[in-house]
């Protein structure tokens, strides 16, 4: 198999889930190289079929389903938490308020647009959203990733996207935020091997959390301190990140359904049909 590029975000959860491979703790079926880019850039590049394996927002997947399969590992879900819509404490948001979002194809943008269809949206790198709110460039902004942990004391939370998710779904399903996708151009048996290696990396990371976290901190690979790193990993890189379960699958299905009914996707897709048929390996070698 040729060298495979694994694209992921530079956020603490993605680094944590992948770096067991960088540190040589996991055997891989071929040479892996990795690149870190912000999630909206990865979403946009996935639309161009740029990387063979890439982290993506679940919100973009129905637009790339013909070219990419979903992997069962490297998952980030919200369970009682998620991105936050913030504003200045004394600000009253009107119907057409101006808001900064982290990217057109992110999951948080999909949910926001379903909840606030009349808001005026601009897109910014997620690291610049808090500043845009503080400066008055926008009335509000949706914070994601590590930004949800700490923000300026003059700001307050207008809405939690977890609550918006519950309001839209009428069910308490995990909120699908980010996952991994693999190009359908990769031969199936090789795709299965790649998924197995990435799954091992996430599993080892979670079982060796303290050691791996210290290595990331010592090498200045993450943007947060040790306390915030532990908090963030407990939220988004945990045992639920190792392998997709049925409850998570229902959450993804509901997200795709909401996007289709809202007119954001041309077709309604079943995520179960988008997974790699891992049983093929057993059939082929038996």
Question: What is the name of the CATH architecture of the largest domain?
Answer: 3-Layer(aba) Sandwich
Low-confidence stretches: none
Q: Helix share of residues?
A: 25-40%
Q: The CATH topology of the largest domain, please?
A: D-Maltodextrin-Binding Protein, domain 2
Question: What is the CATH C-level name of the largest domain?
Answer: Alpha Beta
- Count of DSSP strands: 11
Structural class: alpha/beta
Main beta sheet: 6 strands, mixed
Q: Mean pLDDT, rounded to whole units?
A: 94
Measure the end-to-end span.
22 Å
Strand content: 15-25%
Shape: globular
Question: How many domain units?
Answer: 2
Count of helical regions: 10
CA radius of gyration is 19 Å
| SSE pattern, N- to C-terminal | EHEHEEEEEHEHEEHEHHHHH
The CATH homology group name of the largest domain:
Periplasmic binding protein-like II
